[in-house]
Write a structure and sequence with these properties.
Elements: E1 10-12, H1 21-28, E2 35-37, E3 41-42, H2 43-47, H3 52-56, E4 65-70, H4 74-87, E5 91-96, H5 101-105, H6 116-129, E6 134-142, H7 148-160, E7 165-173, H8 180-183, H9 191-200, E8 205-209, H10 215-221, E9 227-230, H11 232-236, H12 244-249, H13 258-276, H14 280-283, H15 296-304, H16 315-323
Helix pairs in contact: 4-6, 6-7, 13-16
Length: 324
């Protein structure tokens, strides 16, 4: 394993409707070093949309940040990758893991695992247009292409194309009959397949994803692969990341208390309200801040009772902090 610590040693997974710029700003108050991913942005939204800025803009505080793209056209993906680099993203990630019907109808996401040559072409085209890393997030397989041999073949193709890193969700995707939520829980986890990839491709940076919930589990995985990506747990229990900088990047003294996070969020909430007028766009993302702590239920109720009021503002946070 490469002794150099990669920037994506710990990362927060791209999650549709969740990892928007407000959630990412909030997470950056908890961890400075974990790599953050955008929600998936399709090539069509970027190339044919009327407002690229809405899809691509982010705050400078969000670095390091990766742009996840969805599409199946090598030329369109390469064009979008170049736009993403110009916007200042630190990484371009290609979505080859989402199993939703909406994504499949566009012939991208997890169904692309059946087309390793096309994915390799996508990687090569993007690499030809940008200097920043190009990575692929994929499953260990899909129904009908679910053996380790199939996975090995897929990874060998994109490695030959120059992929800088792969992020592997350690479940297959069932492309028919399961919802995206069910695809995150029903197919069994096969961590050993990801570990085998690292043994077979020792010079390729490999990040593992799927079902990881604690620092004990993270530490165990890091003895076998290069990085760990956390998905839903990062949203449900974001303060788990308060120890990331010290545990995995050896940065002491950077952790904030929950109350400090809320206090530092106040100016951002005020700024967003002035631009967009809706405080719930931000505060819906912070309901899990006190997960597992005494008073967590009261905290959630305090916020949810107030965030949809017509005059809701950053004063909600001020009022809550006054009660602590």
């Amino acid at each position: 394993m490469n002794p150099q610590v990669p920037v994506s040693r710990i990362s927060v997974a791209p999650m549709m409707d969740w990892t928007d710029r407000h959630f990412r700003y909030f997470m950056r108050l908890i961890t400075r070093r974990a790599l953050l991913y955008t929600e998936m942005v399709t090539t069509g939204a970027i190339l044919r949309g009327k407002d690229n800025h809405r899809y691509l803009s982010f705050s400078k505080e969000e670095h390091p940040i990766a742009l996840q793209l969805g599409g199946d056209s090598p030329t369109a993906l390469a064009e979008c990758a170049k736009i993403g680099e110009e916007y200042g993203y630190d990484e371009i990630n290609l979505n080859v893991g989402c199993p939703s019907d909406r994504v499949q109808s566009g012939s991208f996401g997890a169904c692309l695992m059946k087309e390793p040559d096309l994915v390799a072409e996508m990687v090569a085209f993007c690499k030809s247009q940008v200097k920043i890393p190009v990575t692929v997030k994929h499953r260990i397989g899909v129904n009908g292409k679910e053996s380790y041999e199939d996975l090995y073949h897929f990874v060998s193709k994109i490695k030959e194309a120059g992929v800088d890193q792969i992020i592997v969700h350690a479940r297959i995707a069932i492309l028919e009959g399961l919802s995206p939520k069910e695809n995150r829980t029903i197919p069994p986890l096969r961590y050993e397949d990801v570990y085998s990839l690292k043994k077979d491709f020792p010079d390729l940076s490999i990040v593992i994803n799927g079902g990881i919930k604690s620092h004990t589990e993270i530490g165990d995985h890091l003895t076998k692969v290069d990085g760990v990506m956390i998905g839903r747990v990062a949203y449900d229990n974001p303060f788990l990341f308060s120890e990331v900088d010290s545990l995995y990047y050896h940065e002491e003294g950077s952790a904030r208390t929950r109350e400090e996070v809320l206090s530092e969020l106040i100016p951002y909430v005020h700024f967003v309200i002035e631009k967009e007028g809706k405080v719930h766009y931000i505060l819906r993302h912070i309901l899990g801040l006190y997960h597992g702590e005494r008073g967590a239920r009261e905290y959630r109720k305090f916020l949810t009772d107030r965030i949809h009021l017509n005059d809701a503002s950053e004063s909600i946070l001020k009022d809550y902090l006054a009660l602590r």
